[in-house]
Please model this.
Amino acid sequence: MTPTDLREFDDPMFRLAQAQFLKAAGIMGLDENICERLLWPQRTMVVTLPFRQDDYHEVETVFGYRVQHVLTMGPTKGGIRYHESVNLGEVSALAMWMTWKCALMQLPFGGAKGGVCIDPTSLSRAELQRVTRRYTMEIISMIGPDKDIPAPDMGTNEQVMAWLMDTYSQQVGYAVPEVVTGKPVVLGGSLGRTEATGRGLVYLIQESAKHLGIDLSQSTAIVQGFGNVGSNTARFLEELGVRIVGVSDVSTGLWNENGLSISSLLDWVRNHKILKGCPSGDEVSNAELLERPCDILAPCAMQNQITGENAQRLQCRMVAEGANGPTTLEADAILNERGIFVLPDVLGNAGGVTVSYFEWVQDTQNYMWTLDEINSRLHGIMTNAFRRTIIRAERDKLDTRTAAMIEGIERVAQAKLSRGLFP
Ligand code: NAD
Model:
């Protein structure tokens, strides 16, 4: 199969993931057979599931997915996304990125991802619970602590992970906390997991600033997305003295040149759910916010935000990707040409899966690590991957995304060659 023969995987995000991979594979001279093998996910499951709405007579049938990209490295690992855009191609792209991310971080996992094509913001708590339990039952043969370990992603959170853990545990007859990560601490969740993606991104923004000679205490940032990743990124940047001049969510963008108070925005969102109507700043559109001047632009919401259309107009010094796939290949070329530093998703947002790995280790070994232990291990793993990426980028004259991906792909290719081909 060739990348033009996408069939049921066809989706702009999967095209992007394959194109990024083929670019890196070509530069590193990856073995052709391994290249073709890694271009496609190894296992996929498509399910349709009925769930009863609160109105008892309404039963909706929705699509769900679980995709495992590479089973060579150990169990597979990856989040579960609830969003109306979810399809097989999108989930497969996210699974492929998880493979490179885990390998870059040197974690003993292959990449996976799952999702349900549904708008979670339209569901009551009871509906969310029912859809989660039914989805878990549909994919239960694929997941397990030694097989495939889900985690939260867009539209899901620690409560959803608790229901998933409970559903799995009910089936086997005893508690299995290690089947999922990102669950509440009382169920065996890890300290620091909820905020780990934002924390990891900010650790690497600090490293990038050192690398570029930027004084963070004198700099400004715009954060797109105010969910788990975006709000924590904004919070940790603010703690470092960065002035947050813009934030956004699905409802609006907010701009305040004097700096927004993140704790006030968090209070507002706790009470109103969305940023719209918040008096802390002027309302601007999401598209416009990306193009406002700042030092650090952190896309932490959706894919496909920085494109060939708007990359030329960005006014930042660094793009720090909290979201998966926010930048297209055309935009990458423009950013590189303009000398804008990119902290790519597979590196920048890897804090989440790294602390998920810590959670899985603690659950399987019955350890309880302190928050300081978690954060210092996270810092060590992330800065090490950052250093390897920068050294490779400078040595081989590569953009940072390609350098980070090659770090990951090389490890997977070596593992595949060591295991050999069955039969
Ligand atoms: P979330 O559901 O907690 O938050 C998503 C945020 O994005 C919300 O504020 C929502 O309003 C906003 N949003 C949605 N559509 C938007 C749009 N078109 N424009 C602007 N804002 C929009 O999700 P999250 O967990 O923070 O995930 C965000 C991104 O980070 C995703 O790409 C996800 O794959 C990636 N990511 C998440 C984790 C994690 O640990 N949760 C780890 C790695 C990567």
